[in-house]
């Protein structure tokens, strides 16, 4: 029987590892649960940035250089929006617009996000089950000295410039897990927390009622998104620093303490191994930067091997 793996993901780092996992596992063996806290409405369109990044990446349609959006993209429609005085800070490409138009149409007909996402995955032959964490509205709010900012305004419009004081996930307390989320966790032999931002990509997933409780009973292994005190991509390290926590693989391990059995950290952080293990979390060393598809596959294989060693599978 094939190993069943469920991955928790959001953002470019999470999508890269999910892609590696999809390349080495049978299609029926991998489920990816994706953050929807950064979903928002822009120019009247329903946009799911993390879901789209994972879908595009696993469908091998993503832009390899940017890490987000479609490959071979153009921005003629956005240029017209800009010329007419509209909001153009969020980079919506012409190919990308097709997805947002169709998603918005289907959601307005009452079709839930999980079904819409499944339809897109089927259309593009995505080799895994991709589940949004919920079909309900959850909105990540970044608390800053300048006031509260919706995540995309903080992240894209403001370029992560405002200092972070905290986070709030509006609607999360009452959000129900999307169909399939609980089953994928319960049936998984291994749960992998991808190298995604712990604060704004993974915490919303963990905050869905019933998710954390199910993870306590599972073999969970994380891959640190922090290497040598810096994030490979995105504001995770700055968020840790703003909150008075030294950004490190140790901080990532401590963040997940209570659900984590093991963590994969980059070899450059080998000196942190002993301190992490004092938290009761096993440590595996690897090269965790994924510059190529080959890197994604190698790291995915190593994570599966490490998880098997740790769990005795």
Can you give me a brief rundown of this structure?
Helix content is 40%, strand content 18%. The protein contains 13 helices and 14 strands. The chain starts with a strand and ends with a helix.
What does this protein look like?
- The chain has 313 residues and is α/β, with parallel strands linked by helices.
- It has helices at 11-24, 49-58, 76-83, 94-108, 113-123, 151-157, 181-187, 198-206, 211-216, 236-242, 249-255, 273-277, 293-311, and strands at 5-9, 30-34, 40-42, 45-47, 129-132, 139-144, 147-150, 166-170, 190-193, 220-223, 226-227, 230-231, 262-266, 282-286.
- Strands 5-2-1-9-10-13-14 form a 7-stranded parallel β-sheet, sandwiched between helices. The protein has a 3-stranded antiparallel β-sheet with strand order 7-6-8. A two-stranded antiparallel ribbon has the order 3-4.
- Helix 1 (11-24) links the parallel strand 1 (5-9) and strand 2.
- Helix 4 (94-108) packs across helix 5.
- It is globular, with a radius of gyration of 19 Å.
- The termini are close together.
Features:
alpha/beta, 18% strand, single chain, 13 helices, 313 residues, three-stranded antiparallel beta sheet, seven-stranded parallel beta sheet, Rossmann fold
How much of the sequence is in beta strands? Answer: 15-25%
CATH architectural label of the domain at 5-39 and 130-137 and 172-311: 3-Layer(aba) Sandwich
In round numbers, the mean pLDDT is 94
Specify the CATH class of the domain at 5-39 and 130-137 and 172-311.
Answer: Alpha Beta
- What can be said about the biggest beta sheet? 7 strands, parallel
| Strand arrangement, major sheet | 5-2-1-9-10-13-14
How many separate helices? Answer: 13
Secondary structural class: alpha/beta
Q: Based on Cα principal axes, name the global outline.
A: globular
């Amino acid at each position: 029987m094939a190993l069943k793996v469920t991955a928790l993901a959001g953002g470019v780092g999470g999508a890269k590892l999910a892609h590696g996992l999809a390349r080495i596992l049978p299609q029926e063996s991998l489920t990816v649960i994706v953050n929807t806290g950064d979903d928002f409405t822009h120019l009247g369109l329903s946009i799911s940035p993390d879901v789209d990044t994972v879908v595009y990446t696993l469908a091998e349609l993503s832009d390899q250089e940017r890490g987000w959006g479609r490959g071979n993209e153009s921005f003629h429609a956005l240029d017209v929006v800009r010329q007419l005085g509209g909001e153009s800070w969020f980079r919506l490409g012409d190919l990308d617009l097709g997805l947002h138009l169709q998603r918005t149409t289907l959601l307005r007909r009452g079709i839930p996000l999980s079904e819409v996402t499944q339809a897109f995955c089927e259309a593009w032959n995505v080799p895994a089950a991709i589940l949004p964490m919920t079909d309900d509205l959850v909105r990540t709010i970044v608390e800053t000295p300048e006031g509260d900012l919706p995540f995309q305004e903080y992240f894209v419009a403001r370029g992560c410039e405002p200092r972070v004081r905290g986070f709030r996930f509006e609607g999360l307390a009452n959000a129900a897990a999307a169909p399939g989320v609980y089953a994928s966790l319960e049936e998984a032999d291994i749960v992998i927390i991808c190298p995604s931002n712990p604060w704004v990509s993974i915490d919303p997933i963990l905050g869905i009622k019933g998710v954390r409780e199910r993870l306590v009973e599972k073999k969970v292994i994380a891959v640190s998104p922090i290497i040598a005190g810096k994030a490979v991509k995105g504001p995770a390290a700055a968020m840790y620093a703003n909150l008075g926590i030294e950004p490190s693989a140790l901080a990532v391990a401590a963040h997940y303490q209570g659900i984590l059995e093991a963590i994969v950290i980059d070899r450059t952080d080998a000196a942190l191994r002993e301190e992490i293990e004092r938290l009761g979390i096993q440590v595996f060393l690897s090269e965790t930067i994924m510059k190529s598809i080959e890197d994604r596959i190698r790291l995915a294989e190593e994570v599966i091997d490490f998880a098997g060693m740790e769990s005795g599978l």
